[in-house]
Design brief:
Number of strands: 8
Number of domains: 1
Structural class: alpha+beta
Radius of gyration: 29 Å
Number of helices: 3
CATH class: Alpha Beta
Distance between the termini: 64 Å
C-alpha cells in the first residue's frame, strides 16, 4: 500500500508504509474514537439530567399543590397555574385563566373536598413544555355529608416560565383506576 509519509518518501512524500506510521495512525484513531464516545456519553447524561430535573421540579410542584389544596388555600393553588391556563374537569365546562382556575378550586374546597394525593407516573419534557400522567385520590362528601375516597387519573401539560418555574398549563382528569 502507498500512503503519504512524514518525510520518508520521495519528493511527493509517497512510499511504502512504515510500521511507526501505522502505530501512530492507530493511536490517532483510538483518540478520535475515545473523544467521540466521551461526547456521546456527555450529551446523553446532560439530557438525562435535564429530564430528571424536570421530573424532580414537577414532583416538588405536586407536593406544593397538594399542601395548598389540603390546607384550603385556593389562591396558592391558583398561583401554580399559568396566566392562560385551562382546567378541563370531567363532565364540566372548561375553566380558563388563572383567576377562573382559582375560583374553581375554591368551590371544590368549600364543597368539602379534602385529602388530595397526587402521584406522577410519567413525566416527559421537551424544551419549555412537559407532560405528566398521574394518579390521584381525593375525599369527596356525599349528599349526607359522609366522605368517600375517589381515585382517578390525570394528564397535565406543564409550561416552564422565564423564571424557570414549572406551572400547570392544561389540566384534565377523570375517575377510575390509573393503571
Amino acid at each position: 500500500m502507498i500512503w503519504p509519509l512524514r518525510g520518508r518518501g520521495g519528493a511527493l512524500g509517497m512510499g511504502t508504509i512504515h510500521p511507526l506510521d501505522i502505530t501512530q495512525r492507530e493511536d490517532e484513531m483510538r483518540l478520535v474514537k475515545s473523544f467521540a464516545f466521551a461526547a456521546v456519553l456527555l450529551l446523553s447524561s446532560a439530557l438525562s439530567v435535564a429530564a430528571q430535573s424536570a421530573r424532580e421540579d414537577i414532583e416538588a410542584a405536586l407536593t406544593k399543590f397538594t399542601d395548598a389544596f389540603n390546607s384550603g388555600n385556593a389562591a396558592a393553588v391558583g398561583q401554580m397555574y399559568t396566566e392562560d391556563a385551562a382546567v378541563l374537569p370531567p363532565d364540566g365546562k372548561r375553566v380558563d385563566g388563572r383567576k377562573g382556575v382559582e375560583e374553581f378550586w375554591q368551590g371544590a374546597i368549600k364543597g368539602g373536598m379534602k385529602n388530595l394525593t397526587l402521584k406522577a407516573l410519567e413525566v416527559e419534557e421537551s424544551a419549555n413544555l412537559a407532560y405528566e400522567v398521574g394518579a390521584f385520590t381525593l375525599d369527596v362528601p356525599s349528599k349526607d355529608g359522609a366522605l368517600s375516597t375517589v381515585a382517578g387519573k390525570y394528564i397535565v401539560v406543564w409550561k416552564k416560565g422565564d423564571d424557570g418555574t414549572w406551572r400547570l398549563h392544561r389540566d384534565i382528569w377523570n375517575l377510575g383506576a390509573a393503571q
